[in-house]
Amino acid sequence: MKAIGVTCRGLVFIYRLEGYDVVALAGVDLDIEAGQSVALVGPSGAGKSTLLSLMAGLLSPSAGRLFVGEHDLAKATAAELQAMRAVDVGVMLQGAARNLLPYLSVEQNVRFARNGAVARDELPPAREILALVGLADPARLRRTPGELSPGERQRAALAVALANNPGLLLADEPTSQLDTDARDEVLAAVEAVRAAGTTVVVVTHDPEIGARMNRTVTIRDGRVGAEGRSGVDYSVIGRDGSVHLPTEVLDVMAPGTLLRVTVQPDGTVLLTPSEAVPHAGAGLGREDQR
Amino acid sequence: MHNLSVTLRGIRHRRGRSLIVVLLAAIATAAAVVIPAYTRAAQQSVLTDTVTATRPATVGVTVSGRTGAAAPDLAAVQASTDAALPGTTVAGFLDPPIGAVWWQGESLVAPARHRTTADVVFRTGVCDHLVLTAGGCPRQRGEVLVSARSVADTGWQVGQRIDIQPPGLPGFRDTGTRPTIPFTITGLYQIADEQAAYWGSTLYLDGGRLDENDNYAADTIFVGVESDLLGVPGTPEPRFAVEYHLRDAAGLRLDQVPVVRADLDKLSRDVTAGAVSSGLPASLDEAAEHQAVLARSVPLIAVPLVLLCWFVLFLVVAALTEERGPELALGKLRGLRLGQVALFAVAEPMLLIAFATPLGVALGLGLTEAGARAFLADGGHVELRGPVLLAAAAAFAGAGVAAALATRRTVRASVLSLLRRIPPRAPWRAVVVESAVGALALVGLFQILTSGDRTSPLAYLAPALLAVVAGLVAARLLTGWARLRGRTAAQRGDVPLLLATAQLARRPATARVVVLMTVAVALLSFAVTIWDVAAINRMIAARVEVGAPVVHTVTAADPAALLAAVRAADPDGRRAMAVAWGSQRYADENLRIATVDAPRLGAVADWPGRDAAQTAAVGELLAPAGTDGPAPIPVRGPVVEADVEVGQLTQTEPTRLVLLVARGTEPQVINLGPLRPGQHTYQGQLDGCSDGCRLLGLSVRRYPTDSTESTVDLTVTALRDGGRPLDAGLTGDGAWRAPAEPPSGLRLTVRPGAGGLRLTGTSSSADLVAEYADDPVAAPAVVAGSPLSADGAAQEFSFMTFGDEITRMRVVDRSQALPGVGRPALMLDLSTVLRQAQRDGLGDLRGWEYQVWTTADAGPELVAALADADVRVIGTRFAEQRHEELGRLAPALALRLYLLAGVVAALLGIGVLLLNIRVGARARLREMAALRLVGVSRPALRRALRREYTVVVAVPLVVGLVAGLGGAALLLPAIPLAEVGAAALEPVYRVGAVWIPSAVAALLVALLLAAASVLRTADRADPRLLREEAR
Question: CB–CB of B9 and A84 under 8 A?
Answer without folding.
Answer: no
